[in-house]
Amino acid sequence: MTGECQIRVRYAETDRMGLLHHANYLVYFEQARTELLRQMGLTYRDLEDQGFYLVVAKLEVRYKRPAHYDDVLTIRTTVTRSSPVRLEHKYEVFGPDGQLCCEGNTTLACVDGEGKIQPMPEFFSANPDQPSGGARPPLAPPA
User: Which of 2, 44, 50, 71 is disulfide-compatible with 78, CB 3.0–4.6 A?
Assistant: First the structure.
C-alpha cells in the first residue's frame, strides 16, 4: 500500500536560514503515515479506541537536500513489510521541483494499553494491500 500527501513548510518549522529543521521531517513522516491509514479507511483514533496502539520501535532518516520555508512537499509513504505484530514504512519526501529531499524508514510495533506487544488488528490482514496477521476481530472502518 502506498499513499501520498502534501505538506507546506511553515515558518515555525524552519531554522534561521529558512530551512526545514531536521527534526520536523519526523513529524511529517507521522502525518503521512496517519494519512495513509486514513486512505485505508481507519484512523489512529479508531485503532486506539479498540485497544491497539502503534508505537515507533525503530526510525532511520537520510537527508539528501534541504527543504525551505513555504515549499510544498510531497511525502510518499509505502508499507514495505508487515508481520503479526509490526508494520514497516518507507518515506520519500520530494521538494516542489520533484527532487528527493529526505527518505526514511520506521518500524511500528502493536501494543496494548499497558505497552505489551499484541497482534495487529485483523483489519490489516483483511486489507488486500496490507497483509498482516492478527488474533482479534476486524475493526470496522468508520461509517
Answer: 2
CATH code for the domain in which residue 45 is found: 3.10.129.10
- Please identify every residue annotated as catalytic: 15
Q: What is the reported pTM?
A: 0.85
Q: Record the cell numbers describing residue 22, joined without a space.
A: 531536521
d(CA 76, CA 96): 13
What distance in Å separates the CA atoms of residue 106 and residue 81, rounded to the nearest whole number? 10
For residue 21, the enclosing domain spans: 2-125
- As for how many domains the chain has, the answer is 1
* CB within 8 Å of 60: residues ≥ 6 apart: 104, 105, 106
For 96-132, give one letter per residue: b (16+ CB within 10 A) or e. beeeebbbbbbbbbbbeeeeeebbbbbbbbebeebeb
Q: Side chain identity at 47, as an amino acid letter?
A: L
Could you read off the pLDDT of 68-116 as tens digits, one per residue? 999 999 999 999 999 999 999 999 999 999 999 999 999 999 999 999 9
